[in-house]
Design a protein that fits this description.
Blueprint (H helix, E strand, L loop, with lengths): L1 E6 L15 H18 L3 E4 L13 H9 L6 E8 L5 H14 L4 E6 L5 H5 L7 H17 L3 E3 L7 E4 L12 E5 L4 H8 L4 E3 L10 H14 L8 E9 L3 H17 L14 H4 L7 E3 L1 H15 L3 E5 L7 H14 L1 H5 L10 H4 L1
Parallel strand pairs: 1-2, 1-11, 2-3, 3-4, 4-7, 7-8, 8-9, 9-10, 9-11
Antiparallel strand pairs: 5-6
């Protein structure tokens, strides 16, 4: 299984010291961490997109990843998620073609729509149109990157007449992944176009997502597509230290800070989850020693059958030195073991993938 890092550029006060970075300092840390992720051997560095909130400071992953591209050479540069349901797909196609060129063909674009209401309000979009916008804009993106000239009519943007997109991405096969949650609209979109998927598994118990992973494989088989299903990815909030006790003691304040900050569209501050439950066997997060991290990743792989897992470590105002130490520990003590799972059959998934 391939491991990558994912960041949303969250900017919060350190709950233990009260220290808050400037926005520029936080963004520089995001860029610096990408170079270290490559050095440590991670396969992906993924940058999320959020708008109009107090917590996250990256509305344009393309800009951040362009900076990252100049400090790296091999790591895949991913978005998690590009909000194609909320953006003009023509501008998205241009911006990310530029990024693919600047990075030498290292782009992986995960496409989706915002979970929060603010983008729909600010951009004057009906929230109920999310699925339709996501499908229409994704399908237009595919055409813009695979056809020389595009003439197109749709529901949500002005028509196109013989449009030539410039520049062109380096990669011949567009590096699209469909993001998904607990519904099946995104699964159908991915299967209809033969695309891989990454599910947003950070906030709910793992069992909720098992039927979605299974549905992807089932629908792929029923579609009659040749070959095995596309790749599947997931994500988790993660923290690791030399011992379970240190990991839990250090991380609890930071993850609680991250989860309880007022989010876009909410009327107040949420109550913190029960920490033991949140990081437990049935919880969405992973926290503990390297052995515990390996064990939970293994159990998630058995349940989901995925081969890409993105780790969100830098949340809640946690100091950069702690983020770097945890990342390096994952690289030295988790990554080698997880990487060996690539050729190992996943129990219960062989028949579904055959």
């Amino acid at each position: 299984m391939e491991l990558g890092l994912i960041t949303f550029g969250s900017l919060l006060p350190d709950p233990l010291t009260g220290t808050t970075l400037t926005q520029r300092e936080r963004l520089r840390d995001v860029v610096r961490a990408a170079g270290e992720a490559e050095e440590f051997g991670f396969g992906w560095y993924t940058v999320g997109e959020h708008h109009f909130g107090d917590r996250d400071v990256i509305p344009s992953p393309a800009l951040v990843l362009a900076a990252v591209a100049e400090h790296t050479s091999t790591i895949r540069l991913a978005t998690g998620t590009t909000l194609v349901a909320n953006r003009d797909p023509v501008l998205v196609a241009e911006d990310y073609a530029l990024l693919d060129l600047l990075s030498g063909g290292r782009l992986e674009m995960i496409v989706g729509g915002s979970f929060f209401p603010e983008p729909y309000a600010v951009f004057d979009q009906a929230p109920a149109s999310k699925a339709a916008r996501k499908r229409e804009n994704t399908e237009l993106l595919i055409r813009l990157w695979t056809e020389e000239r595009v003439t197109w009519r749709g529901e949500f943007r002005p028509p196109l007449d013989d449009v030539l997109l410039q520049p062109r991405p380096v990669q011949e096969q567009p590096p699209f992944w469909i993001s998904g949650g607990t519904g099946l609209d995104s699964v159908h979109l991915a299967v209809d176009h033969g695309l891989p998927m990454v599910l947003g598994t950070t906030a709910r118990e793992p069992a909720v997502f098992t039927p979605v992973f299974d549905a992807y494989r089932t629908l792929w088989q029923e579609s009659g597509r040749p070959g095995p299903p596309g790749r599947l990815g997931a994500a988790s909030h993660v923290f690791v230290a030399e011992t379970s006790q240190r990991a839990r003691t250090l991380w609890e304040s930071y993850i609680n800070s991250y989860l309880t900050v007022k989010k876009p569209g909410s009327s107040g501050i949420a109550a913190p989850p029960d920490f033991a439950t949140y990081i437990g066997d049935q919880g969405p997060a992973i926290c503990g020693s390297p052995a515990e991290v390996v064990d939970k990743l293994g159990r998630l792989r058995e349940a989901w059958g995925h081969d890409l897992h993105l780790l969100a470590i830098d949340v809640g105002g946690i100091p950069y030195a702690e983020v770097r130490a945890a990342t390096e520990l994952v690289a030295s003590d988790v990554l080698p073991q997880v990487g060996e799972w690539d050729s190992t059959p996943v129990p219960g998934k062989v028949a579904a993938d055959a």
